[in-house]
């Protein structure tokens, strides 16, 4: 009797098993069993940052495209730390406890990566930092830490070159008061951000190297933000008026904020030249119509692609050696490109 029961139970299991596996095929004939989940967690320092939202959207698009032609279900879970490191640490903790395959971090404070790294490391979950570069000491804490960013020196130098070219083609276009010097102001990003420090240092280099005298009227922190830049520019207009010849802005959002102040002003006879960095769509429009003299494209499409490729490889075979441009086994740094009225159409088309 007992034996009979066992046999019938066994048959039942086999029947259920067979019928289950019979439904285990997709319409296209692929076995559902072979479809695995890839879970990628992404935490942003601020989702309302124009550049960061551009790179994130691209990351989601690339993932969707890849999912369509792979045997994986790819989940990208994006969360906003809203400028708080405490929020970000708990978001990373949650990704770890929910067993994500890879965690991508746009870190709030680049000097404070150690806690989240230790969490991810203890669960053996690789981390890809992007756009905000943790200090080297932290990047050395583990061999499954990566960084995707861009060569900040280049972006500063492109700004300087744009002004230099304008000066060479028509001095009075830049040196409005004809005193042989360029009077300039700098709108700086967040203090401590690698791009702020490096861009500010490099934007004047091409001019200095070409023997052009410069006079810095002022530099102010605008924290990458449009509204803060408008406020600073309004103050400068009051303080320096027509004296300002160039506005170097560490990013486009602040350049656009400065433009707003300039457009609402009727005391300055000739506007200063405004140059930005990023190449976000709105700034390209301003370059096209001549309100901005130029910008440097911070290639978010490329950076998003690299972040995704790395995350995908790390979640599947774990080997990222095929990633192009990988330096020291962990860094990928994108090139910037110069944009002025002369070539802006190319970039407007590709947006
Ligand atoms: C971009 C800025 C952005 C910042 C955020 C920079 O690389 O140029 O527009 O606000 O990163 O971290
Ligand atoms: Ca001058």
Could you explain how this protein is built, in words?
By secondary structure, the chain is of the alpha/beta class. It folds into two domains: 37-143 and 300-334, Rossmann fold, CATH 3.40.50.2300; 153-298 and 341-348, Response regulator (Rossmann fold). The chain has helices at 2-22, 50-68, 85-97, 114-122, 136-139, 152-169, 171-174, 194-202, 205-209, 226-240, 252-263, 281-288, 300-315, 344-350, and strands spanning 36-44, 72-80, 102-105, 127-130, 145-150, 181-188, 213-221, 246-249, 273-275, 295-298, 331-334, 336-339. The chain has a six-stranded parallel β-sheet, sandwiched between helices. Strands 7-6-8-9 form a four-stranded parallel β-sheet, sandwiched between helices. β1 (36-44), α2 and β2 (72-80) form a beta-alpha-beta unit. α10 (226-240) crosses α11 (252-263) and α12 packs antiparallel against α14 (344-350). The longest helix is centred in the first third of the chain and has 21 residues, at 2-22. Mean pLDDT is 91; it is low at 1-30. Beta-D-glucopyranose binds next to α2. It comes from Clostridium intestinale DSM 6191. Residues 1-21 form the signal peptide.
């Amino acid at each position: 009797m007992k034996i009979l029961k066992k046999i019938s139970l066994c048959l039942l299991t086999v029947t259920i098993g067979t019928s289950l596996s019979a439904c285990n095929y997709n319409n296209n004939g692929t076995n559902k069993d072979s479809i695995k989940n890839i879970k990628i967690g992404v935490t942003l320092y601020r989702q309302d940052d124009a550049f960061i939202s551009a790179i994130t959207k691209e990351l989601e698009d690339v993932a969707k495209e890849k999912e369509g032609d792979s045997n994986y279900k790819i989940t990208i879970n994006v969360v906003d730390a809203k400028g708080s490191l405490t929020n970000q640490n708990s978001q990373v903790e949650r990704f770890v406890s929910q067993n994500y395959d890879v965690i991508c971090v746009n870190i709030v404070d680049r000097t404070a990566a150690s806690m989240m790294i230790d969490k991810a490391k203890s669960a053996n979950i690789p981390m890809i930092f992007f756009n905000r570069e943790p200090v080297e000491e932290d990047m050395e804490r583990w061999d499954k830490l990566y960084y995707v960013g861009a060569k900040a020196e280049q972006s500063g130098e492109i700004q300087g070159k744009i002004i230099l070219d304008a000066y060479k083609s028509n001095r009075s276009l830049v040196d409005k008061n004809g005193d042989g010097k360029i009077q300039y102001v700098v709108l700086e990003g967040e203090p401590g951000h690698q791009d702020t420090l490096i861009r500010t240092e490099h934007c004047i280099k091409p001019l200095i190297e070409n023997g052009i005298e410069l006079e810095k009227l002022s530099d102010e922190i605008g924290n990458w933000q449009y509204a803060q830049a408008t406020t600073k520019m309004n103050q400068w207009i009051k303080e320096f008026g027509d004296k300002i010849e160039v506005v170097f802005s560490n990013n486009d959002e602040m350049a656009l904020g400065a433009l707003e102040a300039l457009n609402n002003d009727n005391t300055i006879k000739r506007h200063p030249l405004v140059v930005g960095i990023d190449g976000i769509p709105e700034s390209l429009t301003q370059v096209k119509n001549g309100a901005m003299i130029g910008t440097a494209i911070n290639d978010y499409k490329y950076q998003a692609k690299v972040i995704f490729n790395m995350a995908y490889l790390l979640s599947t075979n774990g080997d990222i050696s095929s990633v192009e441009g990988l330096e020291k086994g962990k860094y990928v740094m994108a090139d910037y490109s110069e944009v002025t009225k002369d070539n802006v159409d190319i970039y407007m088309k590709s947006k």
